[in-house]
Amino acid sequence: MKKKLGLLYGGQSAEHEVSLSTAKAVTQALNYDQYEIVPIYITREGEWVKGAYLTAPVETVEALQFNREKDAQPHDISSFLLSQQERPFDIVFPLLHGTYGEDGTVQGFLEVLNIPYVGCGVLASSAGMDKVVMKQLFEIAGLKQVPYVYFIRKEWQKSQQALVKEMEEKLTYPMFVKPANLGSSVGVNKASNQQELIEAIDVAFKYDRKVIIETGVVAREVEMAVLGNDEPKVSVPGEIKPLTDFYDYDSKYKDSSTELLIPAPVSEAIEQKMTDMAKRAFKVLDGSGLVRADFFVTADDEVLINEVNTLPGFTPVSMYPILWKNTGLSYPELIEALITLGIERFEEKQQLHFQ
Protein backbone atom coordinates (compact mmCIF):
# COMPACT_ATOMS: atom_id res chain seq x y z
CA MET A 1 0.00 0.00 0.00
CA LYS A 2 1.20 3.50 -0.79
CA LYS A 3 2.29 5.69 2.12
CA LYS A 4 0.04 8.68 2.70
CA LEU A 5 2.29 11.75 2.68
CA GLY A 6 1.14 15.25 3.58
CA LEU A 7 3.12 18.16 2.12
CA LEU A 8 2.71 21.20 4.38
CA TYR A 9 3.86 24.49 2.86
CA GLY A 10 3.25 28.23 2.47
CA GLY A 11 2.84 29.84 5.87
CA GLN A 12 2.68 33.31 7.39
CA SER A 13 6.38 34.10 7.50
CA ALA A 14 8.38 36.38 5.23
CA GLU A 15 9.68 33.18 3.59
CA HIS A 16 6.30 32.18 2.13
CA GLU A 17 7.59 32.28 -1.47
CA VAL A 18 10.65 30.22 -0.57
CA SER A 19 8.36 27.57 0.91
CA LEU A 20 6.31 27.40 -2.30
CA SER A 21 9.45 26.86 -4.36
CA THR A 22 10.51 24.10 -2.01
CA ALA A 23 7.12 22.38 -2.24
CA LYS A 24 7.15 22.51 -6.03
CA ALA A 25 10.62 20.93 -6.13
CA VAL A 26 9.62 18.14 -3.74
CA THR A 27 6.55 17.24 -5.82
CA GLN A 28 8.86 16.83 -8.81
CA ALA A 29 11.15 14.42 -6.95
CA LEU A 30 8.67 12.13 -5.20
CA ASN A 31 7.83 8.64 -6.44
CA TYR A 32 4.09 8.64 -7.17
CA ASP A 33 4.04 4.84 -7.20
CA GLN A 34 5.06 4.84 -3.53
CA TYR A 35 3.10 7.77 -2.11
CA GLU A 36 -0.39 9.21 -1.96
CA ILE A 37 0.47 12.89 -1.78
CA VAL A 38 -1.83 15.38 -0.08
CA PRO A 39 -0.91 19.07 -0.55
CA ILE A 40 -1.81 21.28 2.43
CA TYR A 41 -1.37 24.99 1.77
CA ILE A 42 -1.13 27.55 4.58
CA THR A 43 -2.09 30.97 3.23
CA ARG A 44 -0.32 34.18 4.21
CA GLU A 45 -3.25 34.81 6.56
CA GLY A 46 -2.73 31.48 8.30
CA GLU A 47 -5.64 29.57 6.77
CA TRP A 48 -5.02 25.88 6.06
CA VAL A 49 -6.42 24.60 2.77
CA LYS A 50 -6.20 20.99 1.56
CA GLY A 51 -5.85 20.44 -2.16
CA ALA A 52 -6.75 17.39 -4.18
CA TYR A 53 -4.39 14.40 -4.07
CA LEU A 54 -1.44 14.95 -6.39
CA THR A 55 -1.07 12.42 -9.18
CA ALA A 56 1.81 14.12 -11.00
CA PRO A 57 4.53 16.70 -10.32
CA VAL A 58 3.47 20.32 -9.98
CA GLU A 59 4.96 22.61 -12.63
CA THR A 60 4.26 26.06 -11.11
CA VAL A 61 4.03 27.51 -7.62
CA GLU A 62 0.68 29.02 -8.59
CA ALA A 63 -0.75 25.50 -8.86
CA LEU A 64 0.06 24.98 -5.18
CA GLN A 65 -1.80 28.06 -3.94
CA PHE A 66 -5.35 26.97 -3.20
CA ASN A 67 -8.37 29.09 -2.45
CA ARG A 68 -10.66 27.62 0.17
CA GLU A 69 -13.85 28.85 -1.50
CA LYS A 70 -12.90 27.44 -4.92
CA ASP A 71 -10.57 24.54 -4.20
CA ALA A 72 -11.67 22.98 -0.95
CA GLN A 73 -14.57 22.61 1.45
CA PRO A 74 -14.32 24.52 4.75
CA HIS A 75 -12.90 22.28 7.47
CA ASP A 76 -11.21 22.32 10.81
CA ILE A 77 -7.61 21.37 10.10
CA SER A 78 -7.11 19.19 13.18
CA SER A 79 -10.32 17.31 12.33
CA PHE A 80 -9.08 16.85 8.79
CA LEU A 81 -5.69 15.53 9.91
CA LEU A 82 -7.36 13.09 12.30
CA SER A 83 -10.42 12.32 10.17
CA GLN A 84 -11.81 8.83 10.74
CA GLN A 85 -13.23 8.95 7.22
CA GLU A 86 -9.77 9.11 5.66
CA ARG A 87 -6.77 6.87 6.06
CA PRO A 88 -4.34 8.34 8.60
CA PHE A 89 -1.18 10.08 7.41
CA ASP A 90 1.88 7.88 7.43
CA ILE A 91 3.93 11.08 7.64
CA VAL A 92 3.74 14.84 7.09
CA PHE A 93 6.62 16.74 5.51
CA PRO A 94 6.69 20.36 6.76
CA LEU A 95 8.21 22.49 3.99
CA LEU A 96 7.78 25.68 5.98
CA HIS A 97 10.58 28.19 6.41
CA GLY A 98 10.66 30.82 9.14
CA THR A 99 8.10 31.78 11.77
CA TYR A 100 5.09 29.51 12.35
CA GLY A 101 6.70 26.59 10.58
CA GLU A 102 10.39 26.17 11.22
CA ASP A 103 10.22 27.40 14.81
CA GLY A 104 8.60 24.42 16.52
CA THR A 105 5.00 25.64 16.43
CA VAL A 106 3.82 23.33 13.65
CA GLN A 107 6.00 20.55 15.03
CA GLY A 108 4.27 20.91 18.40
CA PHE A 109 0.85 20.80 16.72
CA LEU A 110 1.76 17.58 14.93
CA GLU A 111 3.14 16.13 18.18
CA VAL A 112 -0.15 16.84 19.99
CA LEU A 113 -2.03 15.12 17.15
CA ASN A 114 0.51 12.25 17.32
CA ILE A 115 1.21 12.46 13.59
CA PRO A 116 4.68 11.49 12.27
CA TYR A 117 6.59 14.27 10.54
CA VAL A 118 9.90 14.91 8.82
CA GLY A 119 12.66 16.91 10.45
CA CYS A 120 13.59 18.33 13.83
CA GLY A 121 11.27 18.20 16.81
CA VAL A 122 9.91 21.04 18.93
CA LEU A 123 13.02 21.74 20.98
CA ALA A 124 15.54 21.66 18.15
CA SER A 125 13.25 23.66 15.86
CA SER A 126 12.55 26.43 18.37
CA ALA A 127 16.13 26.63 19.68
CA GLY A 128 17.52 26.54 16.15
CA MET A 129 15.18 29.35 15.11
CA ASP A 130 16.13 31.65 17.98
CA LYS A 131 19.68 32.72 17.21
CA VAL A 132 20.27 33.84 20.81
CA VAL A 133 19.16 30.57 22.42
CA MET A 134 21.10 28.70 19.74
CA LYS A 135 24.29 30.54 20.56
CA GLN A 136 23.80 30.03 24.28
CA LEU A 137 23.51 26.27 23.68
CA PHE A 138 26.63 26.39 21.49
CA GLU A 139 28.47 28.00 24.41
CA ILE A 140 27.39 25.12 26.65
CA ALA A 141 28.70 22.68 24.04
CA GLY A 142 32.04 24.51 23.92
CA LEU A 143 31.68 25.57 20.29
CA LYS A 144 33.68 28.63 19.22
CA GLN A 145 31.67 31.52 17.74
CA VAL A 146 31.87 35.25 17.07
CA PRO A 147 31.19 37.76 19.90
CA TYR A 148 27.57 38.96 20.06
CA VAL A 149 25.12 41.18 21.95
CA TYR A 150 21.34 40.85 22.06
CA PHE A 151 18.35 42.71 23.49
CA ILE A 152 14.59 43.11 23.08
CA ARG A 153 12.66 46.04 21.62
CA LYS A 154 11.61 47.46 25.00
CA GLU A 155 15.25 47.62 26.13
CA TRP A 156 16.19 49.41 22.90
CA GLN A 157 13.41 51.94 23.37
CA LYS A 158 14.44 52.66 26.97
CA SER A 159 18.24 52.47 26.78
CA GLN A 160 19.40 53.04 23.20
CA GLN A 161 22.45 55.09 24.13
CA ALA A 162 23.65 52.59 26.74
CA LEU A 163 23.15 49.66 24.37
CA VAL A 164 25.08 51.38 21.58
CA LYS A 165 27.91 51.94 24.05
CA GLU A 166 27.82 48.28 25.09
CA MET A 167 27.96 47.10 21.48
CA GLU A 168 30.85 49.39 20.62
CA GLU A 169 32.76 48.18 23.69
CA LYS A 170 32.15 44.45 23.19
CA LEU A 171 32.08 44.26 19.40
CA THR A 172 33.93 45.83 16.50
CA TYR A 173 32.75 47.26 13.20
CA PRO A 174 31.55 46.07 10.82
CA MET A 175 28.69 44.48 12.74
CA PHE A 176 25.87 42.33 11.45
CA VAL A 177 22.40 43.02 12.80
CA LYS A 178 19.81 40.24 12.63
CA PRO A 179 16.27 39.55 13.85
CA ALA A 180 16.69 36.76 16.40
CA ASN A 181 13.91 34.62 14.92
CA LEU A 182 14.01 34.69 11.15
CA GLY A 183 15.87 32.91 8.37
CA SER A 184 17.04 33.35 4.79
CA SER A 185 18.85 36.58 5.79
CA VAL A 186 15.55 38.47 5.93
CA GLY A 187 16.01 41.71 7.87
CA VAL A 188 19.78 41.25 8.12
CA ASN A 189 22.03 44.25 7.52
CA LYS A 190 25.70 45.13 7.79
CA ALA A 191 26.66 48.23 9.79
CA SER A 192 30.02 49.96 9.37
CA ASN A 193 29.39 52.88 11.72
CA GLN A 194 27.11 53.98 14.53
CA GLN A 195 24.45 55.56 12.31
CA GLU A 196 24.20 52.43 10.14
CA LEU A 197 24.05 50.34 13.31
CA ILE A 198 21.06 52.25 14.68
CA GLU A 199 19.28 52.14 11.32
CA ALA A 200 19.93 48.39 10.95
CA ILE A 201 18.56 47.70 14.44
CA ASP A 202 15.38 49.63 13.64
CA VAL A 203 14.95 47.51 10.49
CA ALA A 204 15.54 44.25 12.38
CA PHE A 205 12.87 45.17 14.94
CA LYS A 206 10.31 45.24 12.12
CA TYR A 207 10.70 41.46 11.95
CA ASP A 208 11.14 40.41 15.58
CA ARG A 209 10.97 41.68 19.17
CA LYS A 210 14.54 40.50 19.80
CA VAL A 211 17.66 41.28 17.78
CA ILE A 212 21.21 39.98 17.83
CA ILE A 213 24.30 41.93 16.79
CA GLU A 214 27.50 40.14 15.90
CA THR A 215 31.04 41.24 15.18
CA GLY A 216 31.78 40.92 11.50
CA VAL A 217 34.62 38.51 10.81
CA VAL A 218 36.89 38.31 7.79
CA ALA A 219 36.51 34.66 6.94
CA ARG A 220 35.37 32.13 4.39
CA GLU A 221 31.78 30.91 4.73
CA VAL A 222 31.63 27.12 4.72
CA GLU A 223 28.55 24.95 5.26
CA MET A 224 27.95 21.28 6.01
CA ALA A 225 24.75 19.24 5.84
CA VAL A 226 23.78 16.90 8.68
CA LEU A 227 21.42 13.96 8.18
CA GLY A 228 20.20 11.44 10.74
CA ASN A 229 18.68 10.94 14.17
CA ASP A 230 20.80 9.49 16.96
CA GLU A 231 23.81 8.77 14.70
CA PRO A 232 23.99 11.72 12.29
CA LYS A 233 26.09 11.74 9.16
CA VAL A 234 27.75 14.82 7.73
CA SER A 235 28.24 15.79 4.08
CA VAL A 236 31.26 17.19 2.34
CA PRO A 237 31.78 20.92 3.05
CA GLY A 238 30.68 23.61 0.65
CA GLU A 239 32.05 27.14 0.46
CA ILE A 240 29.88 30.15 -0.37
CA LYS A 241 31.57 33.02 -2.18
CA PRO A 242 28.99 35.83 -2.52
CA LEU A 243 29.89 38.56 -4.97
CA THR A 244 27.71 40.94 -2.96
CA ASP A 245 28.72 42.44 0.38
CA PHE A 246 27.36 39.39 2.18
CA TYR A 247 25.17 36.34 1.55
CA ASP A 248 21.81 38.13 1.70
CA TYR A 249 18.27 37.11 0.69
CA ASP A 250 18.71 38.15 -2.96
CA SER A 251 21.99 36.24 -3.22
CA LYS A 252 20.26 33.11 -1.91
CA TYR A 253 17.08 33.18 -3.95
CA LYS A 254 16.87 35.88 -6.61
CA ASP A 255 20.13 36.14 -8.52
CA SER A 256 23.28 34.28 -9.39
CA SER A 257 25.70 36.52 -7.53
CA THR A 258 27.08 33.65 -5.49
CA GLU A 259 29.71 31.06 -6.34
CA LEU A 260 29.58 27.66 -4.64
CA LEU A 261 32.72 25.58 -4.22
CA ILE A 262 31.86 21.95 -3.48
CA PRO A 263 33.73 20.32 -1.96
CA ALA A 264 35.21 23.37 -0.27
CA PRO A 265 38.97 23.70 -0.63
CA VAL A 266 39.85 23.08 3.03
CA SER A 267 42.40 20.80 4.61
CA GLU A 268 41.47 17.37 5.91
CA ALA A 269 42.05 18.64 9.47
CA ILE A 270 39.68 21.60 9.01
CA GLU A 271 37.02 19.38 7.44
CA GLN A 272 37.27 16.94 10.33
CA LYS A 273 36.99 19.81 12.82
CA MET A 274 33.85 21.14 11.13
CA THR A 275 32.38 17.63 10.96
CA ASP A 276 32.88 17.22 14.69
CA MET A 277 31.43 20.67 15.43
CA ALA A 278 28.42 20.04 13.17
CA LYS A 279 27.63 16.81 15.02
CA ARG A 280 28.04 18.50 18.41
CA ALA A 281 25.74 21.33 17.36
CA PHE A 282 23.17 18.81 16.08
CA LYS A 283 23.28 16.86 19.34
CA VAL A 284 23.17 19.83 21.73
CA LEU A 285 19.99 20.94 19.96
CA ASP A 286 18.65 17.36 20.06
CA GLY A 287 18.32 17.49 16.29
CA SER A 288 16.65 14.91 14.09
CA GLY A 289 16.29 14.50 10.35
CA LEU A 290 18.13 17.43 8.86
CA VAL A 291 20.24 20.40 9.87
CA ARG A 292 22.61 22.62 7.92
CA ALA A 293 25.57 23.89 9.95
CA ASP A 294 27.26 27.13 8.86
CA PHE A 295 30.85 28.02 9.72
CA PHE A 296 33.42 30.77 9.38
CA VAL A 297 36.98 29.72 8.55
CA THR A 298 39.54 32.47 9.11
CA ALA A 299 42.84 32.98 7.30
CA ASP A 300 44.72 31.33 10.19
CA ASP A 301 42.36 28.31 10.04
CA GLU A 302 40.30 29.14 13.10
CA VAL A 303 36.84 27.56 12.78
CA LEU A 304 33.83 29.39 14.24
CA ILE A 305 30.28 28.11 14.09
CA ASN A 306 27.90 30.77 12.79
CA GLU A 307 24.50 29.09 13.07
CA VAL A 308 22.45 26.04 12.19
CA ASN A 309 19.27 25.89 10.16
CA THR A 310 16.77 23.16 11.03
CA LEU A 311 14.82 23.51 7.77
CA PRO A 312 17.34 24.88 5.25
CA GLY A 313 16.55 25.81 1.68
CA PHE A 314 15.46 22.57 0.07
CA THR A 315 15.15 23.02 -3.68
CA PRO A 316 17.57 21.00 -5.85
CA VAL A 317 19.75 24.12 -6.23
CA SER A 318 19.80 24.88 -2.48
CA MET A 319 22.98 24.26 -0.54
CA TYR A 320 21.70 21.41 1.65
CA PRO A 321 20.61 19.09 -1.20
CA ILE A 322 23.64 20.08 -3.31
CA LEU A 323 25.98 19.09 -0.48
CA TRP A 324 24.36 15.67 -0.25
CA LYS A 325 24.37 15.27 -4.03
CA ASN A 326 28.12 15.83 -3.95
CA THR A 327 28.39 13.32 -1.10
CA GLY A 328 26.61 10.67 -3.16
CA LEU A 329 22.94 11.09 -2.25
CA SER A 330 20.58 12.35 -4.96
CA TYR A 331 17.65 14.70 -4.29
CA PRO A 332 14.98 11.92 -4.48
CA GLU A 333 17.16 9.66 -2.31
CA LEU A 334 17.58 12.46 0.22
CA ILE A 335 13.81 12.99 0.45
CA GLU A 336 13.30 9.25 0.90
CA ALA A 337 15.94 9.15 3.64
CA LEU A 338 14.28 12.02 5.51
CA ILE A 339 10.86 10.37 5.34
CA THR A 340 12.36 7.14 6.70
CA LEU A 341 14.07 9.02 9.54
CA GLY A 342 10.83 10.78 10.47
CA ILE A 343 8.94 7.50 10.65
CA GLU A 344 11.74 5.88 12.67
CA ARG A 345 11.68 8.70 15.23
CA PHE A 346 7.89 8.47 15.52
CA GLU A 347 7.96 4.71 16.03
CA GLU A 348 10.58 5.08 18.76
CA LYS A 349 8.40 7.66 20.52
CA GLN A 350 5.45 5.23 20.50
CA GLN A 351 7.47 2.90 22.75
CA LEU A 352 7.56 5.49 25.55
CA HIS A 353 5.15 5.34 28.48
CA PHE A 354 3.48 8.66 29.26
CA GLN A 355 1.15 7.44 32.00
Write a short abstract of this structure.
With 355 residues, the chain is an alpha+beta fold.
Mind explaining what this structure looks like?
With about 350 residues, this protein is of the alpha+beta class. Helix 1 links the parallel strand 1 and strand 2. Helix content is about 35%, strand content about 20%. The strands form three sheets. Strands 9, 10, 11, 12, 13 and 14 form a six-stranded antiparallel β-sheet that branches. Strands 3-2-1-4 form a four-stranded mixed β-sheet. The model has no long low-confidence stretch (mean pLDDT about 90). The radius of gyration is 21 Å and the shape is globular. The chain contains 13 helices and 14 strands.
Measured by DSSP, the beta-strand proportion falls in 15-25%
Q: Mind telling me the C-alpha Rg?
A: 21 Å
Q: How many beta-strand runs?
A: 14
Structural class, by secondary structure, is: alpha+beta
By DSSP (H or I, 4+ residues per run), the number of helices equals 13
* Percent of residues in helices: 25-40%
Mean pLDDT: 91
Shape: globular
Low-confidence stretches: none
Query: Would you list the SSEs in sequence order as H and E?
Result: EHEEHHEHHHEHHEEHEEEEHEHEEHH
How widely separated are the two ends? Answer: 33 Å
Describe the sheet with the most strands: 6 strands, antiparallel
